[in-house]
């Protein structure tokens, strides 16, 4: 754990801690404490300083905790004991696991066999990505950002539709946490009352004949501070606002991990098929007129479901059904 993370852990109770006490506990100077506090504020945390009293956060903070996540996983904990990693900060959890997969491929000549099922979570992500290269905006230390790696014996084409199946898993996890009223938007968003609550991003690499490794990134809005909210260019929702209570991110993380593992195990055997029907039932734009943006081109029609590979089927004004694959396609309601 970094010195900055150690200081944040001590400040997480929301009460004042003097710079002297912080320094003595960590064996560092007060100048080093000030430097760490400055870095915490630069990452987006509100750290208050009062002369004679010290430093405190504007509110208590529950940090991601590996032991708590494993406890919430219950019977599934042994499967994650050596495959669960929590980082204080990283550019991208997807990129982090992809880099590990590339290194392991060099060392073992087996495409990330030991990375299979690994999970990486982070408190702060500087270069998180949404679809079409957009930035994923989060409030550091308040949201849930994780990636899971999964090895499939087949090639990358097999993973078509993976983000749809994973969307069902994330929706199940959010509902089990206690948030009702959610639904899905093709290809990889979870919405609540028409506002984005969570998103997914799948990166797949491997030889055409297999095997391949899919790194599936998940971002869930637990709490969005107003300064980050000003940077979001679409309607959004967060769990704290929905429930009126601070989010237990460790419990939520365990739920997401458990549901994702179950879906990925099924997907390895049967592809999208076990989840296709439910995805279509939970798609918020099913039977509605939609607009799809593909570069400069625009396509309109009625959303009719997805095919076995996850392509969105849209019936145009002439009655013809066209299939659209994710990537550079963006769906909008009309």
Automatic annotation (TrEMBL):
One of its GO terms (molecular function) is biotin--[biotin carboxyl-carrier protein] ligase activity. Its EC number is 6.3.4.15. Keywords: ATP-binding, Biotin, DNA-binding, Ligase, Nucleotide-binding, Repressor, Transcription, Transcription regulation. SUPFAM superfamilies: C-terminal domain of transcriptional repressors, Class II aaRS and biotin synthetases, Winged helix' DNA-binding domain. Biotin binds at residues 92-94, 125, 129-131, 196. Pfam families: BPL_C, BPL_LplA_LipB, HTH_11. It comes from the Bacteria. Residues 80-268 form the BPL/LPL catalytic domain. GO terms for biological process: regulation of DNA-templated transcription. Residues 19-38 bind DNA. It is an enzyme of class 6 (ligase). Acts both as a biotin--[acetyl-CoA-carboxylase] ligase and a repressor. This is Bifunctional ligase/repressor BirA. It comes from Candidatus Muproteobacteria bacterium RBG_16_65_34.
């Amino acid at each position: 754990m970094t010195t900055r993370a150690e200081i944040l852990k001590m400040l997480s109770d929301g009460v004042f801690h003097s710079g002297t006490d912080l320094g003595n506990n960590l064996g560092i100077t007060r100048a080093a404490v000030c430097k760490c506090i400055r870095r915490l504020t630069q990452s987006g945390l509100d750290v208050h300083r009062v002369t004679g009293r010290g430093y405190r956060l504007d509110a208590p903070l529950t940090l991601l905790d590996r032991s708590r996540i494993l406890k919430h996983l219950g019977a599934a904990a042994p499967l994650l004991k050596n495959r669960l990693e929590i980082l204080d900060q990283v550019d991208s959890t997807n990129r982090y696991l992809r880099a590990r997969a590339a290194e392991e491929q060099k060392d073992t000549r087996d495409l990330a066999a030991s990375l299979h099922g690994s999970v990486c979570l982070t408190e702060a992500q500087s270069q998180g990505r949404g679809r079409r290269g957009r930035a994923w905006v989060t409030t550091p230390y308040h949201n849930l950002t994780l990636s899971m790696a999964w090895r499939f014996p087949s090639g990358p084409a097999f993973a078509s539709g993976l983000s749809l199946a994973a969307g069902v898993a994330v929706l199940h996890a959010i509902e089990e946490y206690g948030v009702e009223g959610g639904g899905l938007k093709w290809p990889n968003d979870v919405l609540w009352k028409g506002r984005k609550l969570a998103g997914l991003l799948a990166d797949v690499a491997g030889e055409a004949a297999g095997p391949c490794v899919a790194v599936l990134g998940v971002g869930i809005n637990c709490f969005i501070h107003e300064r980050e909210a000003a940077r979001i260019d679409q309607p959004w929702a967060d769990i704290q606002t929905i429930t009126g209570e601070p989010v237990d991110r460790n419990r939520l993380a365990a739920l997401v991990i458990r549901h994702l593992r179950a879906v990925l195990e099924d997907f390895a055997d049967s592809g999208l098929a076990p989840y296709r029907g439910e995805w279509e039932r939970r798609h918020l734009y099913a039977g509605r007129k939609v607009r799809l943006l593909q570069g400069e081109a625009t396509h309109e029609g009625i959303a009719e479901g997805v095919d076995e590979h996850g392509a969105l089927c849209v019936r145009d004004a002439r009655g013809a059904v066209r299939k659209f694959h994710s990537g550079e396609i963006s769906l909008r309601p009309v």
